[in-house]
Amino acid sequence: MPGGCNLRCRHCYVASRPTHPVLSESEYYRLTLHLVKEGLIDVVVPGMEPLLRHELWAVLDAARDGGARSVGLTTNATFLSKQASRLHDSALTVLNVSLDGPPEVHDRIRGRGVFEKLQEGVRVFRQISSKRLLTNTTVHNENIDCLTDIAAWGLDWGVDYAAFHPFELADQAENSLALHPSKAIGGYLCLIEAFRSGQTSSIVLEAEASTFWAVVQLARTGALDQSHLVIDEAGFLFLQLTFGDRELLVGLNFYPHHFIRTIRVADDGGLSSCRSMARTGWHGVGDLRTDPLRELICTDTATKGLRASKNGPCFA
Q1: What is the pLDDT of residues 183-206, one digit of tens each?
Q2: How far, in Å, CA of 194 to CA of 152, rounded?
Q3: Which of 44, 153, 268, 295 would you label with 98, given CA atoms 20 to 30 Å apart?
């Protein structure tokens, strides 16, 4: 969702995009409702910073009115304490808050005082709402040694899942943050051990097509040997390890047809993917306000646009 962001996070590739809205509030509502009725199961409103946009509530309402299974929001949480009550009363079912590390690491990535606002917002939200709450962490050179601390913060806050995914190269991001694979796997192994010993809440390890090496190399260590293959209602595949009432999920959502399962709407109404947004200036293919979804995703133009990248295949 365009409209600007109050932060300039070093790993982010969207905050510098144009801030002028293209879709109107009514178009956001109609487009979301249409996608849900076409079969979209889960709706997530990502950054820039959705809590800066009044159109957010139209998207949440449309997802509810269309009967979506889950309705999510990703936020840097700096406005969460002020909006916690409204979010609790809304159609929201899942709240994702961005967490980069302990205070000194988080603020070094996002700006001075941001961790304090994040912590306050999460605590206020959790005091009034039992809706599903996740922390979302981009793993890079400056927080790879803090993954257990990050998951422990989530446990203290009453977070349901702590999600982690490797840093991805992008035109607007600080690409020096990118991890060497061996260093990333070392951090993940420490995180898995902390999970096994009960130091963390449930964990999700994710990867895109451009970072699928993380899952492959992690599997080669044997750390996932006792896992089971599971599939959710949307057709997404995961490896699952369970310990008591906690679980560790490893997403396998980088397989080539994943972009058909994940419909990403760009700020011009076009169909896109995370990787093509990062590489093409946030431009979508076609216009979902006028082009039938089922026809658009089957065109050669859409297929090529969704996977185009300077760094090889990049299905969302």
Answers
A1: 999 999 999 999 999 889 899 998
A2: 9
A3: 268
Sheet holding 237-243, edge to edge: 42-45, 70-75, 94-98, 132-139, 161-166, 202-205, 246-251, 237-243, 228-231
Helix (H) or strand (E) holding 241: strand 237-243
Count of domains forming the chain: 1
The answer to whether residue 195 sits within a structural domain is yes
Residue 94, domain CATH: 3.20.20.70
Residue (of 255, 227, 258) closest to 243 by Cα position:
227
Q: Which domain holds residue 79?
A: 25-255
User: Is the pTM above the cut of 0.85?
Assistant: yes
Residue 97 covered by a domain: yes
* Cα–Cα distance, 84 to 125 (Å, whole number): 5
Handedness of CA 113, 115, 118, 119 (dihedral sign): negative
